[in-house]
Specification:
Elements: E1 3-4, E2 18-22, H1 27-38, E3 42-48, H2 54-57, E4 63-68, H3 79-84, E5 92-95, E6 98-101, H4 103-114, H5 125-140, H6 142-154, H7 162-174, H8 181-191, H9 195-217, H10 230-244, H11 249-252, H12 254-265, H13 267-274, H14 278-293, H15 298-304
The chain binds glutathione.
């Protein structure tokens, strides 16, 4: 379990109920929000991520408290947040004063805590083995999503200024840079992402989607079997992000596309993932549609190569 017992943050022990430190557009946080919504807990009050007054530390009945850590304003690289999540990433969950990190571990924790239809089907060993394998593959492609998103669309927006870069380096010295943020941002800030690196990540993702396409093409309703599992949770957020960037799913991976459309229709996806993500989603889609129309977008990179 992802339980962190030795948190440096004085805020964590004060929090009652569920408090999620997250960002609406971040796939790793979307995974957790999707799982929580599948379990029937709704999004409750929005409080500042560092609010520590008595009222902000409580949670409403049947709801989780939302603490947005803006990846745009670089809240995740603040001293305050570094004490909660030393890897400087979202999400982090606090449940009754106990801190949990790592999105997929949090999904498993939520599944265990709430019961109901299992996202982690421990009782079914063969299915569980498939779920684990697909989930691990999904995790291993996490950096590919970051590279492709940044190279595709964030341009200068994704860069850190000098002060932010120094702050990141200083914070990482205290932690372990498990997510390789320094490497990523320093490389990105200096020369963006080369064609070779971009192509390597596109190829890795294509191999993953080819596998998913085969599995779904064999008649499964979901990626592991015939029920929604945490493997669907992690893969759906990859498809959502890449779909926003204009990835040609309907042309290249029709079964994946059809599966994702079914996932998107789930009430928990709409409330948990999309409710406050629509502005961001529409802006990304608009940009990618125009680019694809002019043949300069991700569709061309995927289907026609980078040359
Ligand atoms: N292994 C972590 C990865 C978390 C992660 O990388 N989160 C991204 C958002 S999806 C983040 O906070 N990135 C910060 C950045 O790129 O500056 C998990 O699954 O929770």
């Amino acid at each position: 379990m992802p339980r962190i017992d030795n948190t440096l943050s004085p805020l964590v022990p004060k929090l009652e109920g569920f408090h999620l430190f997250h960002f609406d557009g971040a796939p790793c946080a979307q995974r957790v929000r999707f799982a929580i919504a599948e379990k029937g807990l709704r999004r409750g009050r929005e409080v500042k991520f560092d609010a520590d007054d008595l009222k902000s530390c409580e949670s409403e009945e049947g709801a989780w408290t939302s603490r947005i850590v803006s990846l745009i304003k670089k809240d995740h690289m603040s001293d305050f947040y570094a004490r909660i999540q030393p890897n400087l990433v979202v999400p982090a969950l606090v449940h009754d004063g106990v801190l949990y990190t790592e999105s997929m571990d949090i999904v498993a924790y939520i599944d265990e805590t709430f019961g109901g239809e299992p996202l982690v089907p421990k009782h079914n060993e063969p299915l569980m083995a498939e779920v684990q394998q697909l989930t691990e593959l999904g995790k291993s492609l996490h950096r590919s999503i970051r590279f492709v998103t940044f190279r595709w669309g964030l341009g200068r927006l994704g860069m850190l200024n000098k002060k932010e870069e120094e702050q990141l380096k200083a914070l990482v010295k205290q932690g372990n840079d498990q997510e390789q943020l320094v490497d990523f941002y320093v490389g990105y800030d200096r020369k963006a992402i080369s064609d070779d690196v971009y192509q390597t990540h596109l190829d890795a993702l294509a191999a993953g989607f080819t596998l998913l396409e085969k599995r779904l093409g064999e008649g499964r309703s979901f990626v592991a079997g015939n029920t929604l599992t945490m493997a669907d949770v992690i893969w759906a957020m990859k498809v959502l992000r890449l779909d926003e960037c204009g990835y040609p799913f309907s042309k290249c991976y029709p079964a994946v596309y059809e599966w994702f459309q079914r996932i998107e229709k789930r009430p928990a996806f709409q409330t948990g993932v999309m409710a406050k993500n629509r502005g961001f989603n529409r802006a990304f889609r608009f940009k990618s549609r125009v680019e694809n129309m002019f043949g300069i977008g991700l569709e061309k990179a995927v289907m026609g190569g980078l040359a």
